[in-house]
């Protein structure tokens, strides 16, 4: 027997869900409209605004840049984040307790402050190329997700299994890849997805680091909205939504997405 | 011999990245506001003596607080329904709350431009039902920024609170009812106190998120509803006033960190599980 919910409460929840899902449906609808202005419900169905995206060079270029950045930043963050998460769990006694706080700093410091500070110190101060500055910014941004999510998976891993393998003669590095990593696969997948979504949608950090010729898709959308208020914005928004969902689906198929099923 | 350093070696690359590219640059940004040629605290005197800048700070605090309050109420009520929903429906409701979070801030703020614009959906509807002849100008007001921000952050609040509310055992609620508490009494005296730590986590997430946001105030507030994030960008990239921008950045960091620390303390004190 469960608690009875009052109808008023259920009505409130239903309204909140309409409020949450409605605007996204409106964007999808507006992207399909055959008109030259943004409208909903769509008048006449057409995919021409999706074709339009690829006719605009700036969009074509920034889609590629955003995807490159998201994959590279996520990959790099996993590459340095997995060893860090492993160290935090396996060598807890060796390491100071504040170290885990260090990896949360990119979430604690406002993103826009991080972007501005990187512009001053790295992009202008050290004259790093634009793409490299963006990559550093995005890697920092997604690192907390990688360290924390994988750390949480490792917390429930029984390290005596690893010790058993090593004492039976398996080299430590091989043990890590064949014993430890497969056991925290769900954590790695979750971290990958969270990191990818964060990177591909980022505005506040990228804002300061994009420059002549190199920009990211969300920044390009932001610039486009202020100049042209046409359905291309809706269609490119929908494209960004589907890119995110597609990457999630691919990652799920290849690595197995068990964490959402819980 | 080497074993003593294995942990450090593994954690080193990530630690270096954060130290070199986050701690140092942000410290440098804050540092420049204290070594100004005009005096030690001159940039802060400039900031707080300008009526316009004080208004921006005040507006940002106000918008963030209102957004936090509204999403606390909406998120709590919705999360309660979700946490008591039957299995399959619950998964669907959780996925429906996750989906908006997969979509970026730009797309979700842009949606409100279509809804609230002069020829937007809401105005067309209001004119259509004859409520008004002239479309209202709803964009570039504090209201439009708050609506979009509540929309942005409510899913986060729901997801934070569903986890907390699910952990309240059904037995506790049943016990309260069988001891004679009315449903609203149970809600006030049992469910709410147990949810307080989750409410605080959610409030911190929403407050800091709104306080430091850029895209939403930029798209829906424009010049007229300047907030700390958009103001920082304007000072830095339009006026090239880097000391001014650094001062805004420093104020943002101080307020964010202060809120996080204060709320974590309060959460510890209010947690009924620890007292």
From TrEMBL, chain A:
The keyword RNA-binding does not apply. It comes from the Bacteria. Pfam families: BPD_transp_1. Its main location: membrane. The chain crosses the membrane at residues 7-32, 69-88, 95-118, 130-155, 176-200, 232-251. Belongs to the binding-protein-dependent transport system permease family. This is ABC transporter permease. It comes from Aquibium carbonis.
TrEMBL record, chain B:
It is a multi-pass membrane protein. GO terms for cellular component: plasma membrane. It holds the Pfam family BPD_transp_1. It is found in: Cell membrane. Its main location: membrane. The chain crosses the membrane at residues 61-82, 94-115, 145-169, 190-211, 242-263. CDD domains: TM_PBP2. Keywords: Cell membrane, Membrane, Transmembrane, Transmembrane helix, Transport. Residues 57-264 form the ABC transmembrane type-1 domain. InterPro entries: MetI-like (IPR000515), MetI-like_sf (IPR035906). GO terms for biological process: transmembrane transport. Belongs to the binding-protein-dependent transport system permease family. CysTW subfamily. This is ABC transporter permease. It comes from Aquibium carbonis.
